[in-house]
């Protein structure tokens, strides 16, 4: 077994940064979180590899600020697999890659059937990566050596993989597409936090009374506060189903709460006083939330046929045309044009209909210039007499 060492002090971290800065070429980086175990999405291990420098494993909670890594490596390119998953937790510790190469995005644009790191490495480099530790609790300390060996392997081949993918992108005429997608991923703003996150409770739609919603809200907020204080995933205290069951039953005593079928979880009994206090508060809360909140988003496409038949026809015909073009380009439809952007333009097409107006609408919805160049004409054609074109399509194209 390969011996691995975790850098866990600011002093040793700076020494490692100097070594990495003296290396050559891009830096490969990966981060391990503890999703499903902890409340936060922070990185609990960060792995970095660079040619002529080697592989380093860093313990972010122990090190703290890691901005020196970005500063010492100037404007180098950073290689990540599925960058959108790791950039937020890297920025949280001060790592801000100025340029990136996303190996997963590259694999998608090339039309590879399987784009997980292990699959891409095996397909292109003929190297097998074991993935048995991908879902472990990385907040564990000390980290077992087999986990560390696994983590080190995740970056050891990224530079070679990047070079192989770049050659394939060039051969396919897709390098410019890829570079635009890399930069869009790197600069994408973080999602704004919801003002009513409790409404994301699984099963909330089964509650039929505002009072039940108030109880569910109170229980969710209490669970969230406890989970945050313990840095544990909320669902590991009590699951969403327990909150919904308690809100639906509206018990009138602690014992009745514990008797509710479905009110269970690791901390259902251990924090019974907390849950009862929250439920009691929700039972008398004067502010009753509405059963339904008017959404700023478009209705689901499955409802378009009845709500807006013309928009349904535009969307269906456009999706069919873009799907065929995506197949010709050997890439997934969602990489050729985001479903959200296409839906927005299909629901509310610009007037007059032209390359300029459609391009402006797509750009407003976040589409990249290369995507617009590839799809604008097809979308315009689909939007002209879409009902007639829809009638000519097979029923299979109705799946939106």
Descriptive report:
By secondary structure, this protein is of the alpha/beta class. The protein folds into 3 domains: 6-187, Nucleotidyltransferase, domain 5; 197-284, HRDC domain (DNA polymerase, domain 1); 301-398, DNA polymerase, domain 1 (Orthogonal Bundle), CATH 1.10.150.80. The chain is 52% helix and 8% strand. The chain has a 6-stranded mixed β-sheet. A hairpin with a 2-residue loop joins strand 3 (45-51) and strand 4. The longest helix has 21 residues, at 210-230. The radius of gyration is 25 Å and the shape is flat.
Whole-number mean pLDDT: 95
Which CATH class of the largest domain is shown?
Answer: Alpha Beta
Structural class: alpha/beta
- Strand coverage percent: 5-15%
CATH-defined fold name of the largest domain: Nucleotidyltransferase, domain 5
Output the radius of gyration.
Answer: 25 Å
Placed side by side, the strands forming the largest sheet appear as 1-4-3-2-5-6
Distance between the termini: 49 Å
Q: What's the β-strand tally?
A: 6
Secondary structure: helix percent = 40-55%
Largest sheet, in brief, is: 6 strands, mixed
Helix segment count?
Answer: 20
